[in-house]
Amino acid sequence: MTQAFPTPAAHAREVLAKLGVLALPADGGQPVRGPIDGAILTHVAYDDAREIEAKVAAACRAFEAWRVVPAPRRGELVRLFGEELRAAKPDLAALVSLEAGKIASEAAGEVQEMIDICDFAVGLSRQLHGLTIASERPGHAMRETWHPLGPVAVISAFNFPVAVWAWNACLALVCGDPVIWKPSEKTPLTALATHAVLQRALARFEDAPEGLACVVLGGRDAGERLARDPRIPLVSATGSTRMGKALAPLVAERFGRSILELGGNNAMIVAPSADLSLALRAIVFSAAGTAGQRCTSLRRLIVHESLVDKVSGAVEAAFQRLPVGDPRQAKTLLGPLIDRAAYEAFVEAMNQVRAEGGSVSGGERLLIDEHPDAFYVRPALARLPAPAPCLRRETFAPLLHVVPYTDFDEAVAIQNDVPQGLSSCVMTNDVREAEGFLSAAGSDCGIANVNIGPSGAEIGGAFGGEKETGGGRESGSDSWKQYMRRQTATVNYSGALPLAQGVRFDL
Ligand code: UN1
After folding, report:
1. Would you say the CB of residue 295 lies under 6 angstroms from ligand 1?
2. 184 Cβ inside 6 Å of ligand 1
3. CA distance 499 to 22
4. Atom of ligand 1 at shortest distance to CA of 294?
5. Catalytic positions
6. Staple partner for 472: which of 256, 337, 464, 484, CB 3.0–4.6 Å?
7. Residue 72, domain member (yes or no)
């Protein structure tokens, strides 16, 4: 059944008011377009250099106070934020659909990912463990302690407009660091709404310092300003490899630390023993879900030659059946691409496949009459007789390349033969293949899965990848250590001064 929704602009106004984002310029600021119909949702005001300076200075002041608040008490703020997020979940998810075009279930999943990382960070706030280390000198004690680092800049992308910020922010806050958030120009509204939700947690917490969390709205220059600022010891940036290549040297030049989560070009190997019905569901979700606009989206399918026709046919049929449309409708599984540029990149990538000897099915633009300014597409399957240069490039769209393989080592070599190294998976019931894929000689990615797709990771693991993906790790495991500075301390409780390594220096 089709539900009647207000226009995206009216819907966004309603949801923003419910979330507590009230002071938006009526016009005159920067227009924010929504992908559902391509119309302007509202306007926002960008921060100028003076406003950015004031926010960074406030974050530095907040750091002085926040770093000495006991970590479990800092965790209490994140616990309250998690409570507020639970209450705001339906509205924030609706805004994610309106601004990023995600289907309702994935938008709700994104907010759930924020709630999950809150819970993780609250637990972590009592477990920022250091070490005691055996000293070689008598009467000496050595220990390693983790201290707060300083203001952290988080530069986030449109495709996970709120969850990836939350991965960073929740860890940073319990680690004792203020957070400066520069969201994508394409998704400022979800950032303002999340900030309003955080303000409610801060009000309940009562004594958090002013300036502990802020949002900086702006374009590339705003991000570069933060990257250059020596007062910001850590810059965590998610986006394209091109963005990372521009940003990372600015941070490195001043010896800042960066966490980079850049391009992915994720593959699945389908082996002869694979459970094909499982594989098909994993393929369609990870290739077409989020309209192929996850860093972890499946872009390359490496299928045993005995199965390649069968698997390709089944994927084509599933792509044809996928309900495409307004992501707010319960039955929709594929919403719009973010904008015209994304559609143009999709078309160009399909042309490259054809130019390199491949064939493409699907890929048509849909719903043009209803939404001439929005970009809905049928997912595309590109079949290649052998690996070609088009396999090496990431296109942020639902375009899945298929290539056959003959033996398993060749499949692993094809999987690894790309500049990116984020996520990977194998569908197999052969333990030698599964373990080989996860071994030192297997997948070279930060994420390697068996019998699930490459996308949809849980927050408990470290998230990120190698090579042009940038090498950063966010979210779970011990990613928190990057948000703190490590201090090694040696205490001499003897009356003598023995030197390490047996050095003698008698005065
Ligand atoms: C991203 O696309 O930048 O693993 C993040 C996933 C999500 C996060 C993706 N949990 O697909």
Report:
1. yes
2. no
3. 64
4. 2
5. 261, 295
6. 464
7. yes
Instruction: Residue 291: give the domain boundaries.
Output: 266-458
Instruction: Extract the runs of DSSP E, i.e. beta strands, from 216-294.
Output: 234-238, 257-261, 266-270
Which atom, in ligand 1's list, is nearest to the CA of 459? 10
272, with CB counted inside 10 A (0-12, 13-18, 19+), is middle
Q: How far is it, in rounded angstroms, from Cα 277 to Cα 256? A: 47
Same domain, 117 and 257: yes
For residue 108, which amino acid is it?
A: A
Residue 54 lies in a domain: yes
Instruction: Encode pLDDT of 202-241 as tens digits.
Output: 999 999 999 999 999 999 999 999 999 999 999 999 999 9
Ligand 1 centroid – CA 15 distance (Å): 24
CA 357–ligand 1 middle distance (angstroms) = 31
Q: How confident is the model at residue 27 (pLDDT cuts 50, 70, 90)?
A: low
Work out the number of other CB atoms within 10 angstroms of the CB of residue 471.
18
Nearest CA to ligand 1 atom 1: 295
Asked if residue 42 lies in contact with residue 187, where contact means CB atoms within 8 angstroms, the answer is no
For ligand 1, whether the C-beta of 456 sits within 6 Å is yes
Residue 458 has pLDDT above 90, yes or no: yes
**CATH code at 340?**
3.40.309.10
Domain count across the chain = 2
What pTM, to 2 d.p., does this model score?
Answer: 0.97
296 in helix, strand or coil?
coil
Question: Which atom of ligand 1 is the closest one to the Cα of 261?
Answer: 3
Question: Could you identify the atom of ligand 1 that is nearest to the CA of residue 455?
Answer: 11
Name the one residue in this structure whose structure tokens are 């309106």. 98
Residue 23 CB neighbours (<10 A): 6
Burial of 281 (0-12, 13-18, 19+ CB in 10 A): middle
The rounded Å distance from CA 117 to ligand 1 centre is: 13
Pocket of ligand 1 contains residue 296 by CB under 6 Å: yes
Tokens 């393989």 correspond to 405
Tokens representing 27 are 């016009």
Residue nearest to atom 3 of ligand 1 (CA): 295
pLDDT score at 28:
73
